[in-house]
Amino acid sequence: MTRLDLFIDRMVSQRACLDHAIAETALIDGPVFELGLGNGRTYHHLRERIGDARPIYVFERAIASHPESTPPDERVILGDVTETLPATLQRFGPVASLIHADLGGHNAQKNDIFARKVSPLIEPLLAEGGMMVSSDRMYFDTLTEMPLPGGAVQGRCFIYRR
Ligand code: SAM
Predict the structure, then answer these.
(1) Which SUPFAM superfamilies does the entry mention (predicted)?
(2) Which residues line ligand 1 (CB under 6 A)?
(3) Does pTM top 0.90 for this prediction?
(4) pLDDT at 90
(5) Burial profile 121-141: b = 16 or more Cβ within 10 angstroms, e = fewer
(6) Where are the domains of the chain?
């Protein structure tokens, strides 16, 4: 597999998993949390698909997204997620209908260490029936790993549900 193959598989899987999770959680009216804005491509996809049905809050260290993919200030939760996720649990409680995490970089080992660190911070935020989509395998005690939808590639995206 080339790096281009891996990249394409990740993008195709992200879209398939996000579309699936958006549909599966459509009847839960809690907020959507986007962890890692980056260029804002997946935020833009979430915003276009969800519209005004649910508020989308974006967690990011520093905003550097495409202008068309930049969330309004009041929907940005700025800072390191290891600090902002616990603060968000205090602020909102366990109400998220959908959480998408794409926080990793190019080093798979570092991504895995970070996934282990943030899993217990993400887990309590999810509402009953809520779903979590991640580019990295997560380490949850109380969420169930779900089968991937058609079009997604095994190992390139992961879905969990409470
Ligand atoms: N999904 C995005 C897109 O479609 O454009 C790409 C996200 S990019 C791969 C990862 C982002 O996560 C980066 O912008 C980085 O700043 C952010 N990030 C990584 N670790 C973080 C942390 N500990 N706290 C907050 N943001 C973090």
Answers:
(1) S-adenosyl-L-methionine-dependent methyltransferases
(2) 36-42, 59-61, 80-82, 102-103
(3) yes
(4) 98
(5) bbbebbbeebbbbbbbebebe
(6) 3-161
Has domain 3-161 been given CATH number 3.40.50.150? Answer: yes
> Which residues, in sequence order, are CB contacts of 43 under 8 Å at separation 6+?
34, 37, 56, 58, 65, 69, 71
Q: pLDDT digits over 30-70, tens only?
A: 999 999 999 999 999 999 999 999 999 999 999 999 999 99
Share of the chain above pLDDT 90, in %: 99
- Of ligand 1's listed atoms, the one at least distance from the Cα of 36 is 12
Instruction: Check if the interface score ipTM surpasses 0.95.
Output: yes
